[in-house]
Amino acid sequence: MTILHDSVWRANVQSKTVSVNEMPQSWRKLGGRALIARILLDEDVAACDPMGPFNKLIWSVGLLVGHKVSSCDRISLGGKSPLTGGIKESNAGGSTGLLLSHLGIRAFILEGEPRSDQWQILRIDDKGGAFESAKDIVGLGVYDASEKLMQRYGNKVGITLIGPGGEMGMYSAGVQNLDKDGVASRICARGGLGAVMGAKRIKAIVIDAANGEKPPLDSPSLFKAARKHYTEKLLAHPQTKSFTDYGTAAMAAICNGFGALPTRNFSQGQFEHVEAIGGETMRELLLERGGDSDTSHACMSGCIIRCSNCFASTTGELIVSPVEFETIGLVGSNLGIDNLDDIARLNWEINDLGLDTIEVGAALGVAAEGGLLSFGDAERAMELLGEIRSGTTLGKVLGNGVVATGKSLNVKRVAAVKGQAMSAYDPRAIKGNGVTYATSPQGADHTCGNCIRAEIDHLSPEGQVEVSRDAQIKMAGYDTLGACLFGGFGFASAPGSLMDLVNGRYGWGVDENVLHDLGKITLKLEIEFNLAAGFGPTDNRLPEWMTTEKLPPFNTVFDVPNEELDSIFDW
Amino acid sequence: MTILHDSVWRANVQSKTVSVNEMPQSWRKLGGRALIARILLDEDVAACDPMGPFNKLIWSVGLLVGHKVSSCDRISLGGKSPLTGGIKESNAGGSTGLLLSHLGIRAFILEGEPRSDQWQILRIDDKGGAFESAKDIVGLGVYDASEKLMQRYGNKVGITLIGPGGEMGMYSAGVQNLDKDGVASRICARGGLGAVMGAKRIKAIVIDAANGEKPPLDSPSLFKAARKHYTEKLLAHPQTKSFTDYGTAAMAAICNGFGALPTRNFSQGQFEHVEAIGGETMRELLLERGGDSDTSHACMSGCIIRCSNCFASTTGELIVSPVEFETIGLVGSNLGIDNLDDIARLNWEINDLGLDTIEVGAALGVAAEGGLLSFGDAERAMELLGEIRSGTTLGKVLGNGVVATGKSLNVKRVAAVKGQAMSAYDPRAIKGNGVTYATSPQGADHTCGNCIRAEIDHLSPEGQVEVSRDAQIKMAGYDTLGACLFGGFGFASAPGSLMDLVNGRYGWGVDENVLHDLGKITLKLEIEFNLAAGFGPTDNRLPEWMTTEKLPPFNTVFDVPNEELDSIFDW
């Protein structure tokens, strides 16, 4: 069959049909995160019950996806979040974005209400899609389930799937994707979208793009020249080398230095054992252990940064891939755990459950404060993950995230905005991130505008709104292109390359402001969605206790004025 | 000491001081529910964390309270609700209102953040207030705790206190008050205000009004004549006789007849065993059993309706007082329990925990659907209340109410608005109550505008907004006066009596519209509060599933249009 490029696919779980359509005109210049917002608005999703029949789950391919441009093949997943009640886009690397684009898909929309509780697999290829029984994989963790699926469908397929957490409708459930090596470890983690997939009773979507093809290029020469320019600059950027060697784990020492590393449920900003869980230790450990270890692993084909890693045991067998800084922060220092092996094992378990390590780590931190485990007790933390897997009431509470856990245990120190846990940057010591947490339509999420690299006094309230605004606009732009934040180092050093890539692909004649323009469009749509979903200015606040409880060692509170927060999107 | 009438008392748990002040001019013409809204707005409570230092808990005395006018001595309790996140007023009978008024108090404001976790009793009398240790009563249920307090302070005192649920910060916790016989059974139940009292670490307030006096009357003759007129008409009203004989339990058969009696977690509107749990059966049972039984019990001194009851066992010993229709609906039919003895025992247990029977009954219904008990299994329901008392994680989830329970168990059929459980009227078959649930600033609460007696086709969407609007305005007025809804039968049959009572007490020269005027003022203030707390039109909706899932036997959904809901307060 001929591939219809830049198409919209709809899979209806009620009628068990899959349709392929051209994009409406008004969607054509959008991709990834922006397209999700446009579709959700156009299809009137804002006021619905996120777990009900009217929510939609959308795999949205970024505008640059499909050509293995380094760091530019990410997949955006979106819908109305059961965790925040607002709009949600959560993106990941792996092969899902690339393979969908090779089937011509810009947006894949899963919709409707299942007629029964029988779990389905949805298999798609160049000829369309078909629903098949998932009864032999339901209940399995994502690693086993994806292995079984690859045995059935071959190891060239892409898979996007949920774990037991998503099946149980837990609000910390994400959707895992195969990485380039066929490991189900690239998770669209945040906002509980795995629970939405669970509510649709779809365990996995298997993507067979064997008969697919790359998306067309309007001007191959322009595209290729821009790609070369960008790749060279990215490769030469000093930050790329750091990410290649240390991955995101390098952030542990930096964040600790700023006094912003969440420690023992956000009660401290520095962890006395930070060295033991940081990037340098990890690199040394992996180089020493060898075997399955890899200090520089690419999550997507063609990525030259390779910030991911493979973490092996002392005997060289893989424990988990990757161990990221966010997990080190939330599952490590935030739980008082000072051992990378423990963190890696907890990480694997949370991955296999198909849950978000940030949300679950934060929930465990609150559980520790509520007396359910001692800080530093990795064994007990693992037991609590066992409760989640068993679906006990306690497990379900933890699996529903930090706010549900705080409510249940009557713990006040809950670090969340719009119902979603903060990532591994305490906003009292990196106030730009506090502005992002507070004001992002996505809830507390560093990926929507991380300000830690801004040249600013992070402890001062001054100027943070401007820094966050700029970061939020840029990130919304990258998320619309399918580009990884780290690709941004290359785009920044290769002026015009981004514009040329877009024009080389589509021939739209966009100018140098394309990133900002896409970012602004995206944020505007997302704010419109949240307004229709019932959000207002009072939702754009950090928790009250963070404005009164001082964070050691720098003893600051979050004090960016509300009026400034409220003006952030008046550009 | 001389009593300063119509005064505002403030007890600060941080400084452990109690102050007595004159009312600001702008508060003077308000009482009860309206005064709560005015104070919470003026003192900028709307945006705060309900469980944090900036929330305030206000015992607000209705305008007519203090003279034992039948059914007019209710106490309103208010603050920002941890359950709904919005404004909350919850009122009760008993002696609290009367005794506070005899100390001259119009509003008693509990505020501040406790310096330690040591529980306190606050004792107030005509000379002021003092904090004392509560260590010998902390952890006790409200019955034992209040007994101990009466042993210590004498049996003439009033007591307003929390149970273990409030101590544990559960969002279904209310605040119990002694009835006229010294039994801690008159609960300001809804919205989790007991958790707010718990957050202030106050177990009980003991009110010694031995040296108090009735509030002054501007015109004793006008007041007394109006009271006589009202009392005669109330006594003569046929509805009064029904309430005296059958209490609110008579509603079970009526509501079942409309197909609106919540049955098995709101999955049906009629209960096949309704007769066994209705008013007639209860009356016969109590008359037959004798002993402590009482079919016509007054919760407040001077009430001539006496709709309350004392429910005794087969051997004539009191099980609980009272058994109300709401409890019969939520703890009976909603759990498939067809036995009044079982309902009475569960009722006692929930009372003793200091929790709201509506919220807990609804949570147990969801728990049943989630597989934690079988419908009809009262023994298992009692075990689950044991989990609440023990403070297990499951118990805390249940104690946090129906929404928390639904989230934890991934049950979709959750009957709640603004986070608060619906009362015992399924809004798909009594659509006026659906409008009230959806639009009341208080969340789903029948006491804010019960439409079951309206002469309207309850199954039709037509005209329900008008019916609910009128009921909501009237109820907000009654709640401001300290009057019981059932007193309304008297006021309606004795035109001018309400106006004359207000003028006889205060000399304000109000006209016959006083009830509506007070009601409208109240609603306007409450809507303003909720707006500042972040509520918008999308919060004024029934749950989505109630608009799609048909309720047997009449197979209707809730279909009052959103535009009509949104226009309800455009008067």
Structural notes for this entry:
Two copies of one chain form a homodimer. Chain A is 39% helix and 15% strand. Chain A contains 22 helices and 17 strands. By secondary structure, chain A is of the alpha+beta class. Chain A has a six-stranded mixed β-sheet with strand order 2-1-6-3-4-5, sandwiched between helices. A six-stranded mixed β-sheet of chain A has the order 8-7-12-9-10-11, sandwiched between helices. The longest helix of chain A has 20 residues. Chain A folds into two domains: 201 residues, Aldehyde ferredoxin oxidoreductase, N-terminal domain (Aldehyde Ferredoxin Oxidoreductase,  A, domain 1); 339 residues, Aldehyde Ferredoxin Oxidoreductase Protein, subunit A, domain 2, CATH 1.10.569.10. Chains A and B meet through helix 15 and helix 16 of A and helix 15 and helix 16 of B.
